[in-house]
């Protein structure tokens, strides 16, 4: 009797090889560094993969942010990567807006991410079902501009006409896939994935329980 794991393993290898062959190595490490703090391997490094229109991503953000702020930049670093889920209609366009803004003014990126989370329902599939792609794009541009200042509207609009911003958004998604990310939110701490349960998301105390032992180990090194 043939072993079914052999063809399955071979298929997974082929899929992973194809993914890598299609990947574009970015000029710098992917992601948005929190508060423009230089992420350092000398700290506890947290990486979060978020979809701007994912309710679970939205709900997981406040306790993570609270925990990172509690420890400060000398103890904990945070990088957020966009991971637009294909079954959220406006995930890619809102993720792309974040990449555009990050290029224009990195200090505004998290302000826009917070706004997307706060007003997420405006970009749910049901809210834009009968809108054209152009109308949805205009809605995202207007939202980002009103959030960050209308003076940025022209630059944000130009960003959507620049194919490089689309490439960066796809690179983020491919990077997540290469690390085994399959949904959002998805977390890594010092390179190791942290299990996430939709019914029991990680709260502030949960993050403290993860990070505290690691900071103790840092002090003992």
What does this structure look like?
With 221 residues, the chain is of the alpha+beta class. It is built from eight helices and five strands, in the order H-E-E-H-E-H-H-H-H-H-E-E-H. The radius of gyration is 19 Å and the shape is globular.
Key features of this structure:
disordered N terminus, 8 helices, alpha+beta, 5-stranded mixed sheet, 221 residues
Written as H for each helix and E for each strand, in order along the chain, the element string is HEEHEHHHHHEEH
Low-confidence segments: 1-6, 10-14
Q: Tell me how many strands there are.
A: 5
Rg from alpha-carbon coordinates: 19 Å
Number of helices: 8
Determine the structural class based on helices, strands and strand pairing. alpha+beta
Helix fraction by DSSP (H/I, runs of at least 4)? 40-55%
Q: Give the percentage of residues in beta strands.
A: 5-15%
